[in-house]
Amino acid sequence: xxxxxxxxxxxxxxxxxxxxxxxxxxxxxxxxxxxxxxxxxxxxxxxxxxxxxxxxxxxxxxxxxxxxxxxxxxxxxxxxxxxxxxxxxxxxxxxxxxxxxxxxxxxxxxxxxxxxxxxxxxxxxxxxxxxxxxxxxxxxxxxxxxxxxxxxxxxxxxxxxxxxxxxxxxxxxxxxxxxxxxxxxxxxxxxxxxxxxxxxxxxxxxxxxxxxxxxxxxxxxxxxxxxxxxxxxxxxxxxxxxxxxxxxxxxxxxxxxxxxxxxxxxxxxxxxxxxxxxxxxxxxxxxxxxxxxxxxxxxxxxxxxxxxxxxxxxxxxxxxxxxxxxxxxxxxxxxxxxxxxxxxxxxxxxxxxxxxxxxxxxxxxxxxxxxxxxxxxxxxxxxxxxxxxxxxxxxxxxxxxxxxxxxxxxxxxxxxxxxxxxxxxxxxxxxxxxxxxxxxxxxxxxxxxxxxxxxxxxxxxxxxxxxxxxxxxxxxxxxxxxxxxxxxxxxxxxxxxxxxxxxxxx
Length: 506
Fold this sequence. Notes:
Elements: H1 32-37, E1 39-50, E2 54-61, E3 67-73, E4 86-92, E5 105-108, E6 114-121, E7 127-133, E8 138-142, E9 156-159, E10 165-166, E11 173-175, E12 181-188, E13 194-203, E14 206-215, E15 223-228, E16 234-242, E17 245-253, E18 259-269, E19 273-282, E20 285-293, E21 302-311, E22 317-327, E23 331-333, E24 353-356, E25 359-363, E26 367-371, E27 377-383, E28 386-395, E29 398-401, E30 405-407, E31 418-421, E32 426-435, E33 438-447, E34 454-466, E35 469-477, E36 482-491, E37 496-505
């Protein structure tokens, strides 16, 4: 969801969640196969139960059976109309014990405000954290196994932006399979035809940083995403959503981040606006999941599309696209509506932000995908009051969409469904449901052995009915046949926010 592109967002559990057992249906027990394979150890740790919201929660394994978490937080700092988020880190051992102090390690804490861009495992339990400051410069901090900063105390500036930068932090960073290299991509304002990239190369016990520029036709690109093509290099995907029309474009890069061939257009439209763009590797190509809305119908349904980009024998791009369906709107309110503007701040991780009185309207995903390792993916989206799950694979005449299946009811559109890979062709889909102000989190195993995904066993309850609202989440390997799972959870009517840590085994 494990590369940064495979880090999937969205899982929620309470501290006192029991092992996976209780089915939603009236049957007396879950499927024997599911019950025998999956177990949940919740409530292992709780991080920062403060009144400030936690954004962009991410996780990486520490190499010793533990995990390192990173997140953005406006801890104890209130300023009207200004974004003062900082970047925090915490490492946990195998038992869930925090190792970097009771108050967590503040990697970035300037007045300008920071947004987390990427997280990589370092050496002997350390990490490398990338963030942007005040919508502009890109900074990095490397920590040792005890959380000691290895670079300048306030982080090292890697890429200043003279005119400011356009980013989508949730899609701006990609780690290639194997973890030897990673790349961040963005667009500099005022030079909107230039997509810039920063490569991070692991060299023994240290990292090397290098940058590049890709020139693309068109104007006013808003953000860009890098996609790893393995030994073939990279693909930079850029887009803009303006009144003059929307465009998604691409440019192949070599291993050093330099352009190869000419840039190309994936799609463009003068009347629609692109939202919730997500990119993932597809062997020697890339998958791009994107939704289209009519700006005159704010809050209406999204038309959901999937595109696949590869290079043919002549080095030119080969494109194929398919419409998957119609997804629910991804508009939601965070924090709760009773929280005043003095304690809220803008999140620009998705496409749009609006003020509605004292309420902040945020865009969140109601669709996502998980690459299947054979050039296609499993895609899912909120369709009406159900979640639709299909498999998309390359065919002789383009992309082929399977029949799939639907699960769930009353899905919470503030929580993106996500997949935990189990073993072989088995996946575990997790989603949240909301009824008035009560939330619960559910899971369902399914198989992708055939052309169409098929559910296995019964739906199981991971979090019983609770007023705690799950929001951000992350996952990281915890060893053989297990994974760490963590989330940011709103509790006490939204007056307290904490990060809960647990482990799933199969």
